[in-house]
Amino acid sequence: MVSLMRSRLTIFLFVAFIASSCSRSDVAEKRSEKEAISIYLSAYSKYQSGDYTNAITECTEAIKIEPNFANPFLIRGMAKHALQDYDGAIADYTKAIELNPKYSYAYAGRADAKASLKDYNEAMADFNKAIELDSTNTDYYNTRGITKRILGDYTGALVDYNKIIELSPQSAYSYNNRGYDKLCLKDYTGAISDFNKVIEFDSKIVESHVGIGEAKRALKDYDGAIAAFEKAIQL
Fold first, then answer.
1. How far are the Cα atoms of 2, 82, 83, 128 from residue 155, in angstroms, in the given order?
2. Where are the domains of the chain?
3. Where does 170-235 sit in CATH, by number?
4. How far apart are CA 58 and CA 73, in angstroms?
5. Do domains 2-169 and 170-235 have the same CATH topology?
6. What is the 3-state secondary structure (H, E, C) of 23-62?
7. Which pLDDT belongs to residue 35?
8. CATH annotation of 2-169
9. Fewest Cβ atoms closer than 10 Å to its Cβ: which of 58, 124, 147, 215?
10. Cβ-contact 79, 63 below 8 angstroms
């Protein structure tokens, strides 16, 4: 979740920070506000490069200057998340939500952190809220689908992967995930169809060949299963 959020955030966070500052023109002209923006953008750059410790330090500096802006809390939460400080991440995501109740990224991040702590039911509530706020973000459906699978809700997971495929028909990972859910539901023919679709996109995805092998073994097509497993081993 953390990594998949990264690319979507770059432009969004920059514009959001500037827009928030510009909406309070009397404050934005102050040196402290400009300093906070500069520190925050530096922190986000460090987060993107994987320098999570310094990203946290700089976000904290920005928060001291501008404590009522949500973005530094989000990035600090994401950096803590990357360092597996899930409780710390949840605290920062929660603060970001308090400051901006429509912050879908913060709900999604908090959901993923809760899932990392195996608090799956609470994670589901946050995933649902993130999707309510942004129903076109395929990352949210993916992570919610994975959580549903962990909870044994394979049919619900299929719904989420179907939505991703509707929004992004070239999404190989969604066909792969849906294939594994179909395996769990004993829809072996459907699973093979999905795994073959993945292989059309990228024939080197090992998990899809393994999935085909498992499905064919369940169908008692042992020669086909062996061929699929051998292909996976070759890769």
1. 26, 30, 33, 16
2. 2-169, 170-235
3. 1.25.40.10
4. 11
5. yes
6. CCHHHHCCHHHHHHHHHHHHHHHHHHHCCHHHHHHHHHHH
7. 85
8. 1.25.40.10
9. 124
10. no
Could you tell me the two tokens for 10?
């770059």
Which tokens is 46 given?
């460090």
Rounded alpha-carbon distances, angstroms, from residue 35 to 41, 43, 62:
10, 12, 8
* pTM (two decimals): 0.83
| pLDDT tens across the length of the chain (235 residues) | 544 455 555 445 544 554 454 444 454 445 577 888 899 999 999 999 999 999 999 999 999 999 988 999 999 999 999 999 999 999 999 999 999 999 999 999 999 999 999 999 999 999 999 999 999 999 999 999 999 999 999 999 999 999 999 999 999 999 999 999 999 999 999 999 999 999 999 999 999 999 999 999 999 999 999 999 999 999 9
Q: How far apart are the C-alpha atoms of 2 and 89, rounded to whole Å?
A: 11
Q: Which of 102, 139, 128 is nearest to 16 (CA)?
A: 102
Residue corresponding to tokens 């939500």: 97
Listed in order, strand segments (DSSP E) in the chain are none
Give CA–CA dist 132/141, Å, rounded: 11
Give CA–CA dist 189/192, Å, rounded.
5
